[in-house]
Amino acid sequence: MKLNNLQILRGISALLVCCFHFREYINFEDFPLGDILFRKGSIGVSIFFVISGFIMAFTTLKKDFSINTSKEIKLFYKRRIIRIVPLYFLLSAGWMVIGGTLMYYFHGEGLKRFIHSVLFLPQKDTFPVLYLGWSLNYEMFFYLIFGLSLFFKKNRYIFISLFFIATYIAGLLFPTENAYLKMVSSHLNLYFVVGILFALLLDKISISKMWALVLCTGGILLFSAFFFDFIAISDSVLVLFVVSLFVLSFLLLDYTLHFKGNRLLIFLGDISYSLYLSHPFVELFFRRFKVEGYLNIPYFVLKLIVVIGVAAFFYYFVEKKITEYLKLKLKA
Transmembrane stretches, by residue range (predicted)? Predict the structure, then answer.
């Protein structure tokens, strides 16, 4: 099954994060347009987490891990590393060089930050070298636990769901200042669990077109009301519900309503990982130029166009090329 609408949601999520980081350009003294539109754009990361959980379950649902279990787990880790690591490491190195801080990472706190970044380990009050890598710390931790869950074969989804729910509860009962334990027990890991549950649910249950329309409409309207502050929601569990229903809406467009989706939006989904990681470089470039007043609105649009162009370049000439080469080389 082609999940075109889920791919579209990837693109939307990446653009939301991008607009969140660019929003200051369209915050005017008498009219904070950037905050009105994109103050909650960082929620795109949470959407990514639900999608990741879904995709991992969706792609492994029919696999029998009782045969050659260790080999299958090794293959799983290879594919995840090939998917995530090369572009991230490349752009992290680029960030170190372009930022003029390369030597900083060869000693002291800089070296410590570098080591934590390449090992996907969080640090207290410190972002990775390429700051967006904080979310990849969560992704890689999720993949680590998901790979281990494959040892449980048919019970793998029960194991991973119980693991993240138990660690979340443990975090509530025993608060910690340790950066790694805070990540392990974070409510953000529950987004992965919801994605897994959606994959299991949609594999077993057929939802009628009428109910799919109701859920899609309700999910998109509720998320929009939350995103633009028409309703105030601060509780992390309620935000999880809103985001989850929003993702489910796009899944139902694929599963039940069979909506084909717009090609341009699907393309944005294809390049979403490159877009997510490369947009800070575009921001760095545009900082050289000053634009006054409401001219910042077309300037903002121009930056988004450039971001998409740069992301497309990285996707076709870096991300895809490296991925294809490593898959062949590592037999993954």
Answer: 7-23, 43-61, 81-106, 126-145, 157-174, 186-203, 210-231, 237-257, 264-282, 297-318
**Per-residue tokens: 104:** 């900083």
Closest C-alpha among 98, 57, 45, 53 to residue 273: 45
Judge whether 273 and 87 are in contact, CB under 8 Å.
yes
Above 80 in pLDDT, residue 99?
Answer: no
Dihedral sign for Cα 87, 90, 94, 96, please.
positive
On whether the CB atoms of residues 259 and 220 are closer than 8 A, the answer is no
**13 φψ region: left (φ > 0), alpha (ψ -120 to 50), beta (else):** alpha
Burial class (CB in 10 A: 0-12, 13-18, 19+), 129: buried
| Measured CA angle at 330 (ends 71, 146), to 5 deg | 45
What's the start-to-end Cα distance of the chain, in Å? 22
DSSP H helix total and E strand total for the chain: 15, 2
Q: Label residues 60-82 b or e (16+ Cβ within 10 Å = b).
A: beeeebeeeeeebbeebbebbeb
Question: Would you place residue 248 in the very low, low, confident or very high pLDDT band (cuts 50, 70, 90)?
Answer: very high
Fill in the amino acid letter for 293.
G
Cβ(283)–Cβ(300) below 8 Å: no
Residue type, position 103, single letter: M
pLDDT at 189: 98
Is the pLDDT at 123 greater than 80? The verdict is yes
* Segment 99-102 long-range contacts (CB within 8 Å, at least 24 positions apart): 99/284
CB atoms within 10 A of CB 139: 20
Rounded distance between C-alpha atoms, residue 327 and residue 332, angstroms: 5
Identity of the residue numbered 308: I
- Residue 31 φ/ψ, nearest 5 degrees: -160, 95
Residues 203-243 have pLDDT tens digits of 999 999 999 999 999 999 999 999 999 999 989 999 999 99
**Residue-wise pLDDT tens digits, 199-209:** 999 999 999 99
